[in-house]
Amino acid sequence: MRGRHTTERARGHRFLEASGLQRLAKGALSVGLLATALAIAGCASHTLPSSPGNGAPDNDPASLATEEAVSASPAHPVVPSVSLGRPNAGALEVGVEMPEDPRWEIVVPQHAWGTQETVDGIAAAVAAVNREHPGAHPLHIGDLSREFGGPLYPHRSHQSGRDVDLGYYYLPGKAAWYQRASEATLDAPRTWTLIKALILDSDVEYIFVDRSVQRLLRRHAIEAGEDPSWVDMVMQHKSLHPNPIVRHAWGHATHMHVRFYSPEAQARGKKRYEELVARRLVGERRHVSEHHTEPGDDLSGLALRYGTTIGTILQANHIRPDGIEPGMVLKIPRKGRLVPVFALSTPPRPRPPGQATSPRTSYASRDH
């Protein structure tokens, strides 16, 4: 396993100190490591008391982590990750470091921390590609989050362990991190298999892919026999579906941005939030909201609604005053607390015709 990165750990501690979360992260981390050690030793079936018997109050963050960690199996210890807040205003406790593996290449190891669900989702999707297409080059894995989450330059998101930048699969001799995907470079069959696995077999929320790359992937999927109606449902290019998973976002012709729900990690964060507020451990800080424009939206109304200025919106989105139109996704910088995430009911994960649908839990996290 790679050694610790002292500089990044120091930055993570400074962030947690500033946001008041360091003591909680340390307590949860130490308990999580203890539970993992018990699991590896074959003791995972023993239940540690979560009441005053172990010296921790019922609502203590460390005790919450313990309850989940001790359920791990010896073969696959579960780390009780905690995703706090939103991707653009959040933090990560008891994060999981993306392991080394010959099937992928981690670009910046100190930025390769996520929730257990995020790490598992990435690994499972890459495994699916290698099963279906043996001989694939190692997939480049860009930034997830820092060890304790928080701001990660130059990203607006990547703060709560639920985001990852993944490279595309490329044709022989073309693979490189941040290589622009085109008809001359993109390995469409492998990239489509990766995206399909993320949609069907993980708790993915969104996948941001440039529309030029979507065009190539859509063409391949239809030629490979995918049901066109299902492709329309999950991919924005040439689709009228109101909520596709694969969406266009500027700057994603060189990589895709994947966001996971991580429902278990978010549920832990939701439990934790009220305690953080009560203890005044959640402070004021900037975050970015995402707004999907509709007919009738105008800049002055949006500025009033989100408590910001027209100039701030224009600058954040690189648009002119007359550049707003329906169907856009605007980034709106705001000031506010590290906000809680409330569960919502959402449609089941979309599956091709003939396959049973599977439910998924959505969380109100629309910030990119």
Molecular structure report:
The chain has 368 residues and is an alpha+beta fold. It is built from ten helices and 14 strands. It has a four-stranded mixed beta sheet with strand order 7-10-8-9, covered by helices on one side. A two-stranded antiparallel sheet has the order 1-2. Helix 2 (22-40) runs parallel beside helix 3 and helix 4 (116-132) packs across helix 5 (188-201). It is globular, with a radius of gyration of 21 Å. The two termini are 31 Å apart.
The value of Rg in angstroms is 21 Å
The tally of beta strands, per DSSP, is 14
Q: What is the helix content?
A: 25-40%
Distance between the termini: 31 Å
Mean pLDDT across the residues is 76
**Biggest sheet layout:** 4 strands, mixed
Q: Kindly name the structural category.
A: alpha+beta
Largest sheet: spatial strand order: 7-10-8-9
Low-pLDDT sequence parts: 1-8, 10-76, 359-368
Shape designation: globular
Helix count from the secondary structure assignment: 10
Output the helix-strand order: HHHEEEEEHEEHEHHEEHEHHEEE
Strand fraction equals 15-25%
